[in-house]
Design brief:
13 helices, 69% helix, single chain, 344 residues, Formate dehydrogenase/DMSO reductase fold, mainly alpha, two-stranded antiparallel sheet
C-alpha cells in the first residue's frame, strides 16, 4: 500500500520515520501538478544566432556576503596606508612630524587589516578555514596568494607599530618590519582586483587589465581620505594631498577604462548603466570625481580636506559594493558569456 501524502512511500517496503517524516504536504496532488514541468513547444535558445543554454544563466552568482566588499574596502585602505607609511619612513630622515605621520599610516594599516581579516573570516564561517588556505602556497591562485599576503601584512604592521619607537635592536626590528609591511601592503591593496578579474564573470574578464589598478587606486584614495579627516600636520597633509590627488585621478581613469572594455560587448556592459548596479557604479564615480575636484581647488582649508575625505571614502565604498553586485548581475545574464566568447 502506498502512503499518498506527496512522498509516495510503499509502507510495505519502507517506514516513514525521523525528523523529515513529520513534514506534511498540504494539497499534495496540486503541489505535484504545479511542480511538473510543462512540455517544450520548441527547444529554448536554439533559434537564430543568439543562442543560450536553454535560456538559463551559464554561471552561478557569488555566494559571498556583504562581508567581502567591506573586506575589499578595509583591506585596500590598510594596504595603501602601509605602503605610504613605509615610503615616508624611508624618506623622512629625522623629521619628527613625518615620523609621526608614518606612524599614523602604519596604525591605519593595523586597524584596517585587522578589521578586514575579521570580516573575511566571518564570511568564511569558521576561522580554521582561513588557516586551511595556508597549508599550501600556490602562486597561480590569487585567493591563496591573498591569504598569505594578509597573513604577513597584519603581523608586520603590528610589529612596526609596537616596536618602531623602541631603542636598540627592538627599534631596528620595528624599522625593518615597517618596510616589510609596506611590501605586503602593496599586495594587499591590489590582489583583490586580480582575484575578481580572475573569474568567469564577463564584466571583469573584459576589464581584467584595469581591475588591479582600479582596486589599488581606490585603496589609496580611501587611505588618504582617512588621513584628510584625522591628520593635521602641514608636511604630512601635503604628502597626503599629493598622494590622494594622484590616487583619485587614477581611480577615475581606471573605472572609465573598465567600463569601456566591457562596452566592447554591449550586453556585458549593461550592469554598468542599468538598474541598481548601474546607479551604484555611477554614484561611485561621481563621488570620487567630486572628491578629486575638491582637492584641486586652491586653498588649505581643513574643512575642504575633510569634505574631500568623506567624499573619497564614500566613493571607494560604493565602488566595492558596485563590483560585488555587478558580478552577480553579469552572472545572471544568460547571453553575456556567449556574446563575449563570439567576440573573440
Amino acid at each position: 500500500m502506498t502512503h499518498s501524502d506527496g512522498r509516495d512511500i510503499d509502507t510495505a517496503m519502507a517506514t516513514l520515520s525521523g525528523e523529515g517524516a513529520q513534514q506534511v504536504v498540504k494539497n499534495a496532488r496540486e503541489s505535484l501538478r504545479q511542480a511538473q514541468p510543462k512540455p517544450w513547444e520548441h527547444i529554448p535558445g536554439s533559434g537564430g544566432e543568439d543562442v543560450t543554454y536553454y535560456g538559463l544563466p551559464m554561471l552561478k552568482e557569488s555566494v559571498w556576503s556583504i562581508d567581502i566588499p567591506i573586506y575589499y574596502f578595509l583591506g585596500g585602505a590598510a594596504g595603501a596606508a602601509m605602503t605610504l607609511g613605509a615610503a615616508v619612513q624611508f624618506a623622512c630622515g629625522k623629521s619628527r612630524e613625518l615620523r609621526r605621520f608614518s606612524e599614523i599610516c602604519h596604525w591605519t594599516g593595523i586597524i584596517g587589516s585587522t578589521l578586514g581579516a575579521a570580516f573575511l573570516i566571518h564570511d568564511l564561517g569558521r576561522p580554521e578555514r582561513f588557516l586551511a588556505m595556508l597549508r599550501v602556497f600556490r602562486p597561480t591562485s590569487p585567493m591563496n596568494v591573498g591569504a598569505w599576503i594578509l597573513a604577513g601584512a597584519a603581523p608586520s604592521a603590528i610589529a612596526t607599530g609596537m616596536l618602531i619607537h623602541r631603542d636598540g635592536w627592538m627599534g631596528a626590528v620595528g624599522e625593518a618590519a615597517g618596510y616589510v609591511s609596506g611590501v605586503f601592503g602593496a599586495g594587499l591593496a591590489g590582489y583583490t582586483g586580480v582575484l575578481v578579474s580572475n573569474s568567469a564573470i564577463p564584466a571583469w574578464i573584459a576589464g581584467r587589465r584595469w581591475m588591479p589598478v582600479l582596486f589599488m587606486a581606490s585603496g589609496a584614495t580611501t587611505a588618504t581620505s582617512v588621513l584628510d579627516l584625522f591628520y593635521e600636520g602641514p608636511a604630512g597633509s601635503r604628502i597626503a594631498m599629493l598622494f590622494g590627488t594622484a590616487a583619485r585621478s587614477v581611480e577615475v581613469a581606471a573605472a572609465v577604462q573598465v567600463e569601456r572594455a566591457a562596452a566592447e560587448v554591449p550586453i556585458v556592459a549593461e550592469p554598468f548603466s542599468r538598474g541598481a548596479t548601474g546607479a551604484l557604479w555611477k554614484a561611485a564615480g561621481a563621488l570620487t570625481a567630486a572628491s578629486l575636484a575638491l582637492t584641486l581647488v586652491p586653498g588649505k582649508s581643513r574643512r575642504k580636506r575633510q569634505i574631500a575625505g568623506v567624499l573619497g571614502i564614500a566613493g571607494s565604498l560604493a565602488l566595492r559594493f558596485a563590483v560585488h553586485y555587478i558580478s552577480n548581475a553579469s552572472a545572471r545574464e544568460p547571453r553575456a558569456s556567449f556574446h563575449q566568447q563570439r567576440k573573440k
